[in-house]
Amino acid sequence: MDRTFVMIKPDGVRRGLTGSILNRFEQKGFRLAAIKLMHIDRSLAERHYAELKEKPFFGELVDYLTSGEVCAMILEGEHAVANARSVIGKTNPVEAVPGTIRGDFAMDVASNVVHGSDSPESAEREIGLFFDEQAALYLFPTPQVAASDNV
Ligand code: IDP
Predict the structure, then answer these.
(1) Sign (positive/negative) of CA torsion 98, 99, 104, 109?
(2) Which of 10, 14, 97, 101 has the greatest number of beta carbons closer than 10 A?
(3) What protein family is recorded (predicted)?
(4) What is the mean pLDDT of residues 5-10?
(5) Mean pLDDT of the chain
């Protein structure tokens, strides 16, 4: 099963959109494999967006991501990365069509409420940055793990 990393950014959490955003992914058909609310520091924000460090908005982006709690999650499903990106919509909410998360919940590229990995490789890298795999399995056992625990 494919998986991807999704993060509700501080504006999404602050505006009380966590449930509505998670609902979009569950309605699409994703399985929630792990979820946690956390306040990330500048070092983690910089590592997460390392490929954008030369962009003029990088400082603003790190300020934004560290301005409040984020909700980090691992979502599982077929073509997880591509399906999550289509649920999320275009980077700039001005271009994101209604029906996508950014099309429905955001106005400006600097506060576009949600992140989704852009490739399977990025997904694994980002899951590694945000989650301890063993802790994630312990808190949210898959049916297979739960079954073997009961033997
Ligand atoms: P993505 O989030 O759709 O994958 P990226 O190009 O990887 O898009 O950009 C990462 C994040 O950087 C965006 O989601 C947005 O939060 C922020 N960002 C992108 N362009 C701008 C900009 O022009 N000004 C401020 N922030 C930006």
Answers:
(1) negative
(2) 101
(3) Belongs to the NDK family.
(4) 98
(5) 92
Atom nearest to 118 CA in ligand 1: 4
Q: What is the pLDDT of residues 92-138, one digit of tens each?
A: 999 999 999 999 999 999 999 999 999 999 999 999 999 986 655 54
pLDDT at 20: 98
CA 117 / ligand 1 centre spacing (Å): 12
Domains of the chain: 3-150 (3.30.70.141)
Q: Per the structure block, which two tokens stand in for 139?
A: 């808190």
Model ipTM value: 0.98
| Torsion sign, CA atoms 126, 132, 135, 137 | positive
DSSP-assigned letter for residue 99: T
Does the beta carbon of 60 sit less than 6 angstroms from any atom of ligand 1?
A: yes
